[in-house]
Amino acid sequence: RGMIPPGDFIPLAENSGLIVPLGRQVLQMACRQARLWQEAGLPPINIAVNLSPAQFRDEKLVDMVAEVIMETGIDPAQLELEMTENTLMETGVEVVELLKQLHGLGLKLAIDDFGTGYSSLAYLKQFPVHKLKIDRTFIKDIESDMDDAVITRAIINLGRSMNLEIIAEGVETEAQLTFLQREGCLQAQGFLFAKPMPSEKFVDWYRFSEQGKDLRPCVQNCTLTSCAAIRSTA
Hints:
Blueprint (H helix, E strand, L loop, with lengths): L5 H11 L2 H21 L7 E4 L2 H5 L3 H12 L6 E6 H7 L3 H9 L4 E7 L6 H4 L6 E4 L1 H5 L5 H16 L3 E4 L5 H10 L3 E2 L10 H9 L8 H7 L5 H4 L3
Helix pairs in contact: 2-4
């Protein structure tokens, strides 16, 4: 069938229970790749890996993450684990302690697809997360839909007031990027910067664009290390 998108195979993996061992393999591959890029001469690159609800409910999650960090030798400060709002709220009251244990490993935590779930602000202030990721549904029509613009602006202000990093997902146009920069959102990911690519091609992409423009400052400033280009390696 060729390349099968995550939206097709991830639900099957979750329903069959394969998502837990698959998630470990993805984490291992991502961490190893980060080390390989560094060995290829690139500076330390942060890499983001999503956690599924099933993984989050696994009592061995913290031990698994710690083992992978040790096995691969990655600096935990380079690793970012992402989970959705709904995953956090569905896991139960133990979620705060679990997040604290993960944070205690030295890695970073982010809430993915923020704005589409039903997280409580009372819980949000207890979560040891460092980043909110604005869901792409708000970014898509941000130039023409006043409601999307208001919601995006509110999330940016919320994050800044709580000293959290904010990153916009699904940025595809210069106009979208301009709006976000104007509102104070300093990080973005999306096809405007790069589409998914094989890991071996990432080194060249990182150094130079197709036009020969040096993209390293853009990558560092926009945290493109969590963009689709790197997700494809996992």
